[in-house]
């Protein structure tokens, strides 16, 4: 036997790679089908369709889909009719400003004197703190109302007259240095 030299090539193991143009020629073309439409077939509204359910329900015959509304249409435009307001729909109550019911001046004075927030603000003012914003507005309105109530009840003058009756209080208020020495400091 003659000896044959082994070659390094493996040989034909698979299909040969074909160029794209040859591959296209070998492929079978797809069957061309008509695209299915989404709607009903043309002329379907004119076709008379028999429904078994309608016949079983006792209808005398199939309903013609071509028939529309039987409502009469006015050929001449009519003027628009203004809506009438019924007297029952009118409001029977009237809006008024809300007032605090049944508070007498003495009760309101007691409420202001017992107001905890006002007492805190009063302490801050006595400590020479400056109130700003809502606190100042609240303090001013409450003190103004307190003065009005004191005048209304006749208590505004009594606080001053009670101090005048006390001779010791008057003695403590008097600055003797001014009267004796004549200093203006």
Automatic annotation (TrEMBL):
Biased composition (Basic and acidic residues): 22-35, 172-185
Entry keyword annotation includes Mitochondrion: no
Keywords of the record: GTPase activation, Ribosome biogenesis
InterPro entries, per the entry: YihI (IPR007336)
Region listing for Disordered, in residue ranges: 1-80, 157-185
Family of this protein: Belongs to the YihI family.
Subunit structure: Interacts with Der.
The protein's role, per its UniProt record: A GTPase-activating protein (GAP) that modifies Der/EngA GTPase function. May play a role in ribosome biogenesis.
Full protein name: Der GTPase-activating protein YihI
Organism: Arsukibacterium indicum
């Amino acid at each position: 036997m003659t000896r044959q030299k082994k070659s390094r090539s493996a040989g034909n193991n698979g299909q040969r790679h074909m160029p794209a143009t040859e591959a296209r020629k070998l492929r079978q073309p797809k069957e061309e089908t008509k695209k299915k439409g989404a709607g009903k077939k043309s002329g379907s509204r004119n076709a008379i369709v028999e429904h078994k359910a309608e016949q079983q329900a006792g209808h005398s015959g199939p309903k013609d889909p071509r028939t529309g509304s039987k409502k009469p249409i006015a050929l001449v435009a009519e003027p628009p009719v203004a809506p009438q307001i019924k007297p029952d729909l009118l409001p029977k109550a009237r809006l008024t400003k809300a007032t605090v019911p049944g508070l007498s001046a003495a009760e309101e004075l007691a409420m202001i004197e017992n107001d905890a927030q006002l007492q805190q603000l009063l302490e801050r003012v006595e400590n020479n703190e400056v109130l700003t914003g809502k606190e100042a507005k609240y303090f001013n309105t409450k003190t103004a109302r307190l003065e009005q109530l004191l005048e209304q009840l006749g208590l505004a003058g009594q606080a001053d007259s009670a101090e005048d009756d006390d001779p010791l209080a008057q003695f403590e208020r008097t600055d003797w240095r001014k009267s004796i020495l004549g200093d203006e400091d």
